[in-house]
Amino acid sequence: MHTTLNHERRLLLAVAALFVIGVIGHLIYPLTPDVVKVLVAQLGLHGNLGGNHFVDSREFFGIPNTADVLSNLPFAIFGIWGLLLQANTHKAYQPYVGRESFVLALFFIGLIFTTVGSMLYHLTPSDSTLLWDRAGMAFVFAGMLGVAASERISAKSGIWLGLISLLAGMLSLLVWSQTTDVLPWMTLQFGSLLLILILAITRKHIKSLGVSLYAVVAWYALAKVFESNDHAIFEATGHWVSGHTLKHLAASLAALPIILALQK
Prior knowledge:
CATH class: Mainly Alpha
Largest sheet: none
Structural class: mainly alpha
Number of strands: 0
Number of helices: 13
Order of helices and strands: HHHHHHHHHHHHH
Radius of gyration: 19 Å
Strand content: under 5%
């Protein structure tokens, strides 16, 4: 019990530190579109990275940007699959699934929400539709952080971390929509990955589902690599598939470790 309380306090301090970084960063060095362009150029990355421009704009079946639109479907597939598994598993393994039911549902619903938001965004890429894309991702991040905390610390910490993360996600998107500063959102995105990685090295809870947090981080990290090399991959594959399309597929597979844990 004492160890759990210590872990919960450390987690709260880590979350507070990320919040402070996001707030201070927004006030001192906001990442506006002009600043982002300079940083992208300094890092030697493609000039379109970070904007609403993607290399594969081909249209099939009357669907603009077909590959980037349809590659979002796996998110919904995993989301629906996960909700069905959760419902069925809950009946047989209440002590395990019951303690994580809220954050699991938050994660799987977030995947479905991400499909809708991201498809809408890639049909007509703009800042207004990007808001819906990121809103879905905020639910996914919140659910995943909640699952990670439930797996490693306690069900209570999973619930409050999920709720705090969701609130932080909505606030960061509000800041971005009003000021164009993406730093709070980036703090949430990469801070979430860091927290999950830290939780991964913590000993599993006695009633954990056994989710491989390392695998979750690995799939999402691979997705970011694909995203950063959108044009290079498109050229390397002879215009067969772009990095951004592969990013969607890899990111959706971050749900697989949770699906496999529920199936066990």
